[in-house]
Amino acid sequence: MTSASPHDSGFQITVEPSGRQFVAQSDETILAAGIRQGIGLPYGCKDGACGSCKCRKLSGEVTHGPHQSKALSAEEELAGFVLTCCARPTSDVMLESRQVTEAGAFPIRKMPSRVLALGKQSHDVMLVRLQLPAGEPMQFHAGQYVEFILRDGARRSYSMANAPHTLAVPGTGIELHIRHLPGGKFTDHVFGAMKEKEILRIEGPYGSFFLREDSDKPIVLLASGTGFAPIKALIEHMQHKGIERPATLYWGGRRPEDLYMDAWVREQAAAMPQLRYVPVVSNAVPEDNWTGRTGFVHRVVLEDFPDLSGHQVYACGAPIVVDSAKRDYVAEAALPEEEFFADAFTTEADKAQP
User: Fold this and answer.
1) Largest Cα–Cα distance in the chain?
2) What is the pTM of this model?
3) What is the side-by-side strand order in the sheet with 109-122?
């Protein structure tokens, strides 16, 4: 027999060790119920593709909707792990998640936004600035993302590349770094027909990728490609708040041009004694004249930090980079699993894989 919560027709969800509780209806996912009630559970794609929301089930029963085995394998499911983004409760449930955010997470809102400016940063990265409605500032943490709601109801997620305090500067707006995926319904439009003043519907803020300020541990920032966007927001936030924890940014691209805001990072590193910058290129050709670090960006971190037991890592970019980093840092460098914070950029193509 399942136990329903006495005060509601749904099921009681308890998250340990924070003890936070909320109610989920049997027809909604645990994550959707948590977001609706301002409980900051960790998550990324919300599509069963990335595994960011995976946590251990301590008690209770759920049924899982479709998801990818790389996000939650059959073995993990048998061992009691759940993906909150596609798990619906069939009883009261107790979960273990150490990344649950404090009470009073920022409200998620739908709003129109106007394209303020478009600027190509490289052959396949566009910087898009969006103006939000006057008098309705969106509250968000540096590192969170917004979703575009397209005309057909499809959604596309992009991290905000600037920190909240920068919105006070007129003409700034929300900054997004959008990579062109040829054949992509949305990015073909961004790189083709999109014009300034165009109106787009967005919803946000989403995501649990933001700086944990209750720690004084040194930080490794790991970005691949446009995964730099939320990392840029974290750097702006640290500078604004006077956070002096040592931070090392590793930014990886195939070619030097993929490090499309290299000059900006060097400027910040010059102004912030606590910030060190290590650009990494994996596929340089002779005409690049590249003399910096080479190889897989997440492995370069291990060359410099063989012991990460006292660090926090914030990783963002392609799922293969984020997944490999978490696996290797925990296994080889003694990084505590709960000190790895990530936002994997899953594309529509990634989500379509089995």
Assistant:
1) 69
2) 0.79
3) 155-159, 145-149, 199-206, 109-122, 125-131, 174-179
Exposed/middle/buried for 106, CB within 10 Å: 0-12, 13-18, 19+? middle
Determine the Cα–Cα distance for residues 41 and 103; give it in Å rounded to an integer. 11
Condensed to tens digits (0 to 9), the pLDDT of residues 223-246 reads 999 999 999 999 999 999 999 999
Q: Which two tokens stand for residue 218?
A: 């040194």
- Distance (Å) of CA 29 to CA 2, 63, 82, 138, 335: 17, 9, 11, 25, 31
**Cβ atoms < 10 Å from Cβ of 336:** 16
Query: Which of these, 235, 241, 240, lies nearest to 223 by C-alpha position?
Result: 235
Q: How confident is the model at residue 352 (pLDDT cuts 50, 70, 90)?
A: low
Q: Strand pairing partners for 117?
A: 129
- List the end-to-end C-alpha distance of the chain, in Å, as a whole number: 34
Closest by alpha carbon to 175, among 209, 221, 131, 141?
A: 131
Report d(CA 336, CA 317) in Å as an integer: 21
Report the candidate in 107, 106, 114, 108 with the shortest Cα–Cα distance to residue 201.
114
* CB neighbourhood size of 183 (10 A): 9
Buried b / exposed e over 198-223, threshold 16 CB at 10 Å, is eebebbbbbbbbbbeeeeebebbbbb
User: What is the distance, to the nearest Å, from the Cα of residue 203 to the centroid of all Cα atoms in its chain?
Assistant: 15
Sign, CA torsion 39/229/227/224? negative
Q: How far apart are CA 95 and CA 82, in angstroms?
A: 9
pLDDT tens-digit series, residues 97-141:
866 655 556 777 889 999 999 999 999 999 999 999 887 778 899
Residue 226 exposed, middle or buried by CB count within 10 Å (0-12, 13-18, 19+): buried
28 pairs with which residues across the strands? none
pLDDT of residue 6: 43
CA pair distance 121, 263, nearest whole angstrom: 12
Determine the residue type at 83: L
Q: Could you give the CA distance from residue 316 to residue 231 in angstroms, rounded to a whole number?
A: 7
What are the phi and psi torsion angles at 264 (to 5°)? Answer: -60, -45
